[in-house]
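Task 17 of the worksheet. Students: predict the tertiary structure of the chain below and write it out as structure tokens. Keep your answer in the requested format; marks are given for formatting as well as content.
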Amino acid sequence: MKSRIPVVLLACGSFNPITNMHLRLFEVARDHLHQTGMYQVIQGIISPVNDNYGKKDLAASHHRVAMARLALQTSDWIRVDPWESEQTQWMETVKVLRHHHSELLRSPPQMEGPDHGKTLSPTPAAVPELKLLCGADVLKTFQTPNLWKDAHIQEIVEKFGLVCVGRAGHDPKGYISESPILRMHQHNIHLAKEPVQNEISATYIRRALDQGQSVKYLIPDAVITYIKDHGLYTKDSAWKGKSTQSAEGKTS
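Model answer:
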């Protein structure tokens, strides 16, 4: 039986609010890595961004973490981690990766998880690889001047690795070929394809909620209930009108 490399997937972003598309990113990425025959995905981590990210219409982190927890009640391998959201300042993505990497070194997760009925054998006593999970829209932001530090991009793709799920209107292979750093480390960038077009965005969800439209089947029912109970994403929400700042592209 061929040993597989254990992998933990980390998604950093606003999750404002978490949507079914965010959850699908994990499922698609896991399927892709398993199909390579090299990897076993043993855990997924959702890391909501700190309130000081400065993004307009960003709900308070405790709400975003709570909604993610509710959305993940039906998952037995993805969890939400509040560490990034609890820091005193906004954290660059590479620093979040460093934190979780050190946590894996200190206490590796159990080698278990769904495998679609197939027996997957991870390398004995291996420390899991930590890979950043993102959509192709985030990969594109690597090209935006003054948004990401080149040293950070290099550390992400060289030390950790990327799993990028394609989105309509994006050309991830093109983004890689246009970037010397990404091109140099393209062996550590996995491009996964979503077989079902899924263009649900948190921006659309917020707009629909603001206009009183239904978002059922776009986000988990438990999240819809939470939003209603706490009066989030409405015209009268207290977080309306926050200023923005220049910060790395993150999953919305």
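Marker's comment: The beta strands are 3-13, 39-48, 78-80, 121-122, 129-135, 162-165, 189-192. The first strand starts at residue 3 and ends at 13.
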